[in-house]
Amino acid sequence: MSLPAIDVQKLCYTYPDGTPALRGVDFQVAAGESVALLGANGSGKTTFLLHLAGLLRGEGEIRIGGVTLEDETLGAIRRSVGYVFQDSDDQLFMPTVLEDVAFGPLHRGVDASESIRRARDILATLGISHLEERAPYHLSAGEKKRACLAGVLVMKPDVLIFDEPTTFLDPPGQNELARLLIELPQAKLIATHDVYFARKVATRAAFFLAGRIAGDGPVEAIADRFHWRLS
């Protein structure tokens, strides 16, 4: 059997003010699996996701593709995990979309011409080559989200994390994003309040409640069990 893409055991985290955020979370995601994370604001979803990318460090064990997250492997883990933040403006910072997408490879030592080639390839794959010379702040919400996704995919991660990806998107933008996510082969975690979007992009859901996973199963079954129909 192949190793899980994500394997979390007994993950705990307490905020500096003493507030417990994660209370012994156990969780696994198989390679290529898409899982929606449901739950109210403050239930622990984002805190959990930040741990998977090594952006927060609590107690417990996290393995990404069989590699245990620790100080010595932090760089490798961050190369394996692509994180698309809730607010695209937190992620786009270069003068043009092309420069933004090419920034990651360039920062890792890939020469400029190859970085640009890789960036253009991924922009073409996502159908947004026409945006390459546009300034990110001139883009629509949907275009920004796809530009962020391009900047993540160009790094060829094994795991993709999306924190509230439908924020600021209108229904056509949500449908387009869902189509893109369905086509991606990586293991995916999608934190969302929108069970209808979750149903489109995932077959499994985990429900966070007060820092614990209170339920894990098919999206519809979890939504019904916790009366979760917010959008």
Structure description:
The structure is a single chain. Helices cover 35% and strands 26% of the residues. By secondary structure, the protein is α/β, with parallel strands linked by helices. The strands form two sheets. Strands 6-7-8-3-9-10 form a six-stranded mixed β-sheet, with helices on both faces. The protein has a four-stranded antiparallel β-sheet with strand order 2-1-4-5, covered by helices on one side.
Task: Record the strand order, biggest sheet.
Answer: 6-7-8-3-9-10
Helix content: 25-40%
The proportion of residues in beta strands is 25-35%
End-to-end CA span: 37 Å
What structural category do the secondary elements indicate? alpha/beta
Shape: globular
Strand element count: 10
Q: Enumerate the spans where pLDDT stays under 50 for 5 or more consecutive residues.
A: none
Overall pLDDT metric: 93
Could you describe the largest sheet, including whether it forms a barrel? 6 strands, mixed
If you compute it from the alpha carbons, what radius of gyration comes out, rounded to the nearest whole angstrom?
17 Å
Provide the succession of SSEs. EEEHEEHEHHHEHEHEEH
Query: Can you count the helices?
Result: 8
